[in-house]
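Record format v2
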Amino acid sequence: MVEDGSIFSQLLVDRLNYFIYIILLLIGLWAMIAKNNLIKKLIGMSIFQTAIILFYVSIGVKEGATIPIYLPEHDPHGSHLKVDVNGSEKMLPPEVLESSLVPGYSNPLPHVLMLTAIVVGVATLGLALSVCLRIYRGYGTVEEDELLEKLEREDARNTGRPRRRRPRRAPSEKAVATEKLKSGNPRPRQSRTNRKGAKAGSSEGTRNDSTKSVTEKRKTVRKPRKKTSPKPKEDNS
Amino acid sequence: MSDHIVWIVLFPLMGAVACALSGALSKKLCYPISVISMIASVWASVHTMMQAIESPVHEISYILGGWSLDLFPRGVGIEFRADLLGALITLVVTGVGLIVTLYSKVPVQRETPGKEPMYYGLFLLQICGLAGIALTGDAFNLYVLIEVAALTGYGLIALGSNRAAAATFNYVILGTIGASLYLLGVGYLYLKTGTLNMVGIREVIEAQSLYDSPAMQVAFVLVLVGILIKMAFFPFHAWLPNAYCHAPSTTSCLLAPLVTKVMIYVMIRMVLTVFGVEFSFESTLWTEVMPWLVAVAIVCAAVMALAQREIKRMLAYLIVAEVGYMVGGVWIYNYYGLIGSIFHVISDACMTLCLFLGAGIILEKCRTTHFDGLRGLFAKMPLTMIGFFIGGFSIIGLPPTCGFFSKWYLITGGMVSERWEYMVTLMFSTMVMVVLFFRLIERIHLAVDESGKNLGKGHGDLGLTEEQTRFDEAPLTMLVPLLIAASIVMIIGVYNQEVVDQIEVFLRAYNLPTGVSYK
Amino acid sequence: MSTAAVVEDIRPLIALLAPWAGMIGIIWAGEKRPNLRELFTFIAASVQAAVVLSLVPIILSGAVVEFHIWQIFSYVPMLLRVDGPGLLFACVASLLWIATTLYAVGYMRGLHEHAQTRFYSFFALSLSATMGVAFSANLLTIYFFYEMLSVSTFPLVTHMQDKEARTGGRTYLGYLLFTSLCLLLPALSWCYVWLDGGHLTMDFIEDVGKVGHFSEATQIVLLLLFTFGFAKAGIMPAHSWLPGAMVAPTPVSALLHAVAVVKVGVFCVYRVYADVFGAEVLANMSGEEWTMVIASATIIISSLVALSQDNLKRRLAFSTIGQLGYIVLGAAIATDRGQGGAVLHIAMHACGKITLFFCAGAIFVATGKKYVSELRGIGRKMPLTMGAFMIGALSVIGLPPLGGFISKWYLALGALDRDAMWVVIVLLISSLLNVFYLLPVAVTAFFRTSETENDPSFKEAPWSCVVPLLLTAGGCFLLFFWSDVLLQMVGLNP
């Protein structure tokens, strides 16, 4: 089945590392796009980055090579501390290896690069997870479809676009409470009146009330006036 | 003496640490610390620019860690290389950073109270990352610094409201995909050439004639697609409008002028310095395909900007269109197009800064940036409006602002390469921008509402209360940076020849077709 | 032409900057001190006129005055140069600014207009841009000031700030910016890029005729791009902005039609025809007659449309479009006398048309009437106004001893130089049409009928509106008698 030179042989034998990392890459990419849960998207992101790390490490593989630390027989100094004729001590840089000895050592550079990349990946993951936490506290969900719906409603509210005539689904008690406390977002019911003048998408509740007088339209006549005091601007999640 | 180049990056770094630590003492210390470290950074970048101009090879090179080039081949140490392009971009980054830092006092206090140490820490780290991107001469170091800039950017946006945090998630996903693709491309480059130093890679490509190597072609595609995602080139732009619109105003003032422009600098650096002119332009098909993609990008972005009813979102889509200009300027493959592209990077940073500063002030004073809330602002905040509309006229391309000159070079480039699709879309989007900004002027200036009905009592009465039209300018810490940015827009326009001279010195090292028998 | 002596002098720059200084004074005086504010405008206008007039002797002696502002590109400077046609245009603009300011004071105060500070400031800026166009020495400089004029007249056109102003402003700016950004800028760029030897400055003296290196097709395309790109010249179909801009107050209309905007447009077109292409290149271009045809069509069509307009200002707007066509036609005729006649017509038409607009505005201020059909018999109560209207009308029609005769005479002579008899016929027909749509207004104003004899709304306009229009009417006479000086300025020997 797996003859030399066929496509399978090329993929699965000669270039196995590339094949595997590409599969992992695609799995990660698919997860980032297709999964609904934000945490699963982040797992996909992590898989994506890990695939790349795998790629780098795999290209650094060298058959029959040892770790890139000088073998004692190749390092004539033993210790780099040299005592001079005058008795003063001097540190010497490492001896440069002869070129014939170099293939015996594996290349440290891909590993070094990937240590850095792992750190970057961890930082990204940590930051993304805290953003997820913030989203959860603010919107009460980490499912993308629910989140998008909530965001759409909030955007429509805040930018004064004509609302779609559908009954507002009351968010859960907990979500309302956390919204009010943590984000300072105006409660859905109250800010219905705020057609124009709200800062688009911001959690600040104050509006430019006086613009209502300028644009007396069908929309603003409907609801009674909302209290005008500014909301506390606490965003401490 | 030539280690000023490192100080450009080190001052903000130290400032960030100082800010984060000083938060324990007093939140009010963060602003002065940031301003001082930014001033120091600007001074260092001016010094580096002067040195780069005066040096015989027109570049300053500094190997971190002392791995000098005499003893070790290129690529053992990480090199910071400030040639004229890098020095210009660094100057822009630090200059814009200083202006936004000065501006940030009031908005940061109002929008993210209590979080100043974290905010300013991330802010300075962001500038550190962006300046590092402009200075580094090592491909992997570039990845690290791209991620530094990106991560701090994510943090800066997410520090705002919940809506901003929701917008950040999308940005995180897309940004990580982009940076990881770039990393993958660097992996292929290292695989084939054995070095990570930018100049070193090109030397190996030329020495071993790797022009048709499939690995290098793959590397090229991966690197450039990664960068295109990070610079919000249509259709990878989806993260940008939400992220910049809902972010705190200071964040958008910092990120909007700089991040996408620095990524375009990275693209130019990859195309010219790493892969070389012969590889990028002659051995790939990008010069045939990209101008068409750019044309689609510009038209779509311009049309989407027309549909917006809110200033910051409109400006975000304008950024996407401007990115299209600059990418197109590179890929039409001629000398004037590249001059135009590089000059547009500089001028677009300044004019976007102007616009976002103005939008931030409008947000601060009027609590809204929706078009309906803007009536009467010419009377209320005349100086802010002057600053804002100087930025607007620069985007339209009216002389003598810098936007006219960058459009001039881009049109010249398009003509020389006979890229009519690029030129037609450039003209079309210019008209769209005229409509955008004059529509804004109409909203502010005329006593007519959206549906065309007259408001007020005629004779110029806008139907507003006396309180709304009273002169109530922005606080000085916000107004003065805006006016400085507006005057920079004009100064860069009038003195454009000085800047273009340096760009030309940089570009002469590369063999680009000029199309006309030039001097 | 390139052998003229060059005098370096800062006076062109002073003429340019005087309105800016005036603007600072206007803003400083503000709404609280209107008399001081108006005084600043007069001072700025007088300084500008004095500086411009002081340059006349130098130009008449055959030299040109230059001032180098800034090297904007390494290959193109922003350069001011005063030569005959430019100085003639500048004289007309600056002198008429004084008259318009006097008129505007009466008009704006008479109607208790709002935002007068803004009005006077942007008026000053527009005049500065006009001076810039008049004194530009190369294509790029003239483009800069052309754009500056578009932007600085926008607040004037939308002065009333209502629905009509919005529509008018959109039409105005839409036409002007669309044509200048989409037609003019590519044409400009093409000239700079594709000429042999790299970048030429497209200087109006040194680089005349170099466009001839292009292929014939390119030349005619460029010519058309320039003609329509300078949409302020009102060549059909890029003319609709002019009637649309009539929503502005009458002083602005006077500025648009007579002092600045359209004159800038046709002056730019003249410069392109005469000093970028040059008479020899134009004469040898095969498709060049088409521009003459387009200009002639503009003249005839607009005159016919003017016949049908009842709104007086719209009638005058279409009349202006026709008169601008004369100037473009003269430039396109590409003979010395034709092009000289074109520049002369800038001056003559400015004087005549501004008189007509002042009269229309005076009628509106005094009686509130806008339509020609309502004006029967009004001359009895407004003899000065309608008398001046008659004089302005005769000047536009082109009868001696008024200025308009000289310019039309030279246009006809220029056409005959080129054996283009049909152009003379066009001139005659259009003059006849001018008679039909202008004279009836003046003549019936003096007829009395039973209904209108005792109309109480008829009364003479305020003196500060009447004095300027008498001055400009007198100017129409003076231009006739001083025509030899003017002819010398445009390089034709009388």
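The radius of gyration of chain B is 22 Å.
The first helix of chain B runs from residue 4 to 22.
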